[in-house]
Amino acid sequence: MLLTGQHLISDRILVSNKEIFRAVNPATGKLLTCEFAEGGSEEVEMAANLAERDFDLFRQTSGRKRCELLEAIANELLVLKDLIIERANLETGLPVPRLEGELGRTVNQLRMFSQLVVADDYKLMRIDQAIPDRQPLPKPDLRLTQIPLGPVAIFGASNFPLAFSVAGGDTASALAAGCPVIVKGHPAHPGTSELAGRAIQLAVQKIGLPDGIFSLIQGSGHDLGSALVRHPQIKAVTFTGSQAGGRVLFDLAAARPDPIPVFAEMGSVNPVFVLPQALKKNHQLLAEKYTEALTLGVGQFCTKPGLLFAVKGEELDDFVQVVEKHLHRIRPLPMLHLGIKQNFNHKLKKIKLLQGINCVGEHGSSADESCDVSPALLLLSAADFLHQPSACEEMFGPSSIVVECESQDQMLNMAKSLPGQLSATVHATGVEDIICRQLFSILEKKAGRLILNDFPTGVEVCSAMNHGGPYPATTDSRFTSVGSTAINRFLRPVCYQNFNNALLPQELRDEQELNKP
Ligand code: NAP
């Protein structure tokens, strides 16, 4: 299958006379094949109108039909697997085994939602039967279910070119809910986006659904994203990326005449608290695991532990030395694109100017056009941490700050000072239960996922997962972007009062009526 460089909006090939852009190989700095058309408001208008046209038909499909669609997308992705992985490797510099794992995860996410929507339980129905002779007033028959919101705009993430991109969890959960999807592909991996988009288009055709339920618009400028968020037919937005980008899109959506929800997953420093007994017992192993977590995927995970708090002393010195030793063995690796590398260098430079900061791990990124960077470890005292809020900002890349505390009580104060997070971790032994409980009681108010004696980087895709958290980690802490409850972002409740069985949605009808032939 050859790349066309065109947007995927129905079967229309838009031979626009507008600008084009090309992907860059982050490992070599060289331009890759295929010119991609820059999308703008014309493409947004076309895709949004098609999505609105087909919304009514799509929202009324059975769960079984949507299950078939999601299964078909998973199958088409597997047919294109080799092409997708080859292109994603060129466009992102991520190693092939990582991309194979990510494609597996993408397929599993689609299958998880396909299974979820076969039964109606995900709509969380409630039935309150009428009590006509209730005094002083009769109670009406009230029945509650959930319906899809409408067309959803999805911003693909740069750091997960498959699992959080065109056919990723946002698309899977929106389609599962019955919402048409318009994806704005991330400009760093347009070829990967096109291949995944074509797998979705093929699946839509094969299942016999209307083509307006999925479009992919490519582009490398802010205007396209803004036009999408502002379009009156768009009813919700999902985003994974920078705090600046997420916040701009959130504000744009709030300023519409009809504000819509924006589910933006942005930055997080995912603090790790290591209690003294745990450090004493395990410092070698903890140092190894912490190094792995902060350098995994060249530190380009929203769950990377960016801050580690421990009480100062000999054990902490030993721990830091072991981390340093591990970091020195790690060769420079490319980040996803030049912009992310420059951002990382800029943030690191800013952090190195903090009062009292000590850079113990060697950092050196190449000055050339490649995106290579080396990891960095920094040390800061708790007192210096507390009066410099920028120490809490996400440094997207392979770096972390160890904060040296005077006491366990000071660790509690550190926890209290933190902004919202995706995750928060405590390492403790059984003898540290009291302080551990105190820490979690503070961290519960700060983070969407609490972790005991592990590291935050792996995010399991399952029904009990929460990948969200208070602002600035996300723009809506009540929802998750990973796991089966991610579907709730695209549903809204509707209550039916005094309806007879014939007029009620199927899932709210009385059972004996449902069972009638
Ligand atoms: P990004 O700059 O936030 O971009 C993500 C997507 O949003 C892109 O499609 C981008 O398109 C669009 N966008 C961003 N700002 C916009 C605006 N003001 N108006 C309209 N559209 C906008 O993220 P990135 O390129 O992936 O990486 C940049 C930084 O984001 C990283 O250095 C890192 O700090 C952070 N990041 C965080 C996470 C996380 O999970 N926490 C993940 C990835 C990246 P255009 O650029 O084409 O407009």
Report the CATH superfamily of the largest domain: Aldehyde Dehydrogenase, Chain A, domain 1
> What is the strand tally?
20
Q: What is the second-level CATH architecture of the largest domain?
A: 3-Layer(aba) Sandwich
Helicity level? 25-40%
Query: What number is the mean pLDDT?
Result: 94
Order of strands in the sheet with most strands: 14-16-17-12-11-18-19
Q: Could you say which small molecules are bound to this protein?
A: NADP nicotinamide-adenine-dinucleotide phosphate
Span from first to last CA? Answer: 48 Å
Summarize the structure.
With 517 residues, the protein is of the alpha/beta class. The chain is built from 15 helices and 20 strands. Strands 14-16-17-12-11-18-19 form a seven-stranded mixed sheet, with helices on both faces. Strands 1-8-7-6-9-10 form a six-stranded mixed sheet, sandwiched between helices. A three-stranded antiparallel sheet has the order 4-5-20, with no helix packed on it.
Structure description:
This protein has two domains: 7-12 and 38-128 and 140-266 and 475-495, Aldehyde Dehydrogenase, Chain A, domain 1 (3-Layer(aba) Sandwich); 272-452, Aldehyde Dehydrogenase, Chain A, domain 2 (3-Layer(aba) Sandwich), CATH 3.40.309.10. Helices cover 38% and strands 16% of the residues. It contains 15 helices and 20 strands. It has helices at residues 41-59, 63-79, 81-92, 96-116, 169-177, 190-207, 222-230, 243-254, 276-295, 314-328, 338-352, 382-386, 408-417, 433-443, 511-514; strands at 8-9, 20-21, 36-37, 126-128, 142-148, 152-155, 181-184, 214-217, 236-240, 262-265, 272-274, 307-311, 333-334, 358-359, 372-373, 376-381, 399-405, 421-427, 447-452, 491-497. Strands 14-16-17-12-11-18-19 form a seven-stranded mixed sheet, with helices on both faces. Strands 1-8-7-6-9-10 form a six-stranded mixed sheet, sandwiched between helices. A three-stranded antiparallel sheet has the order 4-5-20, with no helix packed on it. The structure holds NADP nicotinamide-adenine-dinucleotide phosphate. The site of NADP nicotinamide-adenine-dinucleotide phosphate has 28 residues, from helix 7, helix 8 and helix 11.
